[in-house]
Amino acid sequence: MKKTNILLSVLALGLIGLFILIYAPMYRHNQMAKEYLKQLKNAPLDKNDKLLDDYSAVGLLCGNGNHCDIICMTFWQSDVPLQELRAIDSKYKVIFAADEDALNHYIDFPDKDVVVKPKLRQINCTYILVDWHSLMPDGDLRCY
Questions:
Q1: How many CB atoms neighbour CB 3 within 10 A?
Q2: How far apart are CA 16 and CA 20, in angstroms?
Q3: Quick one: which of 3, 42, 56, 59 could link to 72 by a disulfide (CB 3.0–4.6 Å)?
Q4: Mean pLDDT, each 10-residue run in order, the chain (144 residues)
Q5: The sheet that has 68-77: what strands, in order across it?
């Protein structure tokens, strides 16, 4: 009876350890994505711009592995003329909704056509702020 209890305890601890080993890196990368998204939400080109929506994804979004991509986007609507918006400097990549070629060139990941392009059409957005990071996978199974 004692051997069975010890074996079950070791097995339970092993499963808990495996769960932590698998989900801790995922949790860490998700928290990083939330922080990057929070920074984007506080960085409109003009103080009167309206945040319409946001999007983030974590995983192997482009390339062939051995890294983890985090992409965060905020979709903004602005009453400022497009020429004035283009003149404003931002520390983030700015893609204007009118520039479909820029959208196709810069944002290259599997969900682009499924998530981003339809969202642009639905919410009548003026521009997108994009923050993209490539990190070491650190055991995150989504990044292999």
A1: 7
A2: 6
A3: 56
A4: 85 88 89 94 93 88 81 90 89 81 64 67 82 84 80
A5: 50-59, 68-77, 127-135, 93-96
Please report where in the chains the tokens 């339809």 appear, as a residue: 118
CA–CA dist 132, 107 (Å, integer): 9
Q: Collapsing DSSP states into helix, strand and coil, what is residue 50? A: strand
| Rounded Cα–Cα distance for residues 131 and 10 (Å) | 43
**Nearest to 123, CA basis, from 79, 57, 77, 72:** 77
Q: What angle do CA 53, 74, 41 make, to 5 degrees?
A: 100
Question: What six digits make up the tokens of 24?
Answer: 């801790």
Identify whether the C-beta of residue 72 lies closer than 8 Å to the C-beta of residue 55.
yes
The model's pTM is 0.79
- Domains in the chain: boundaries: 2-143
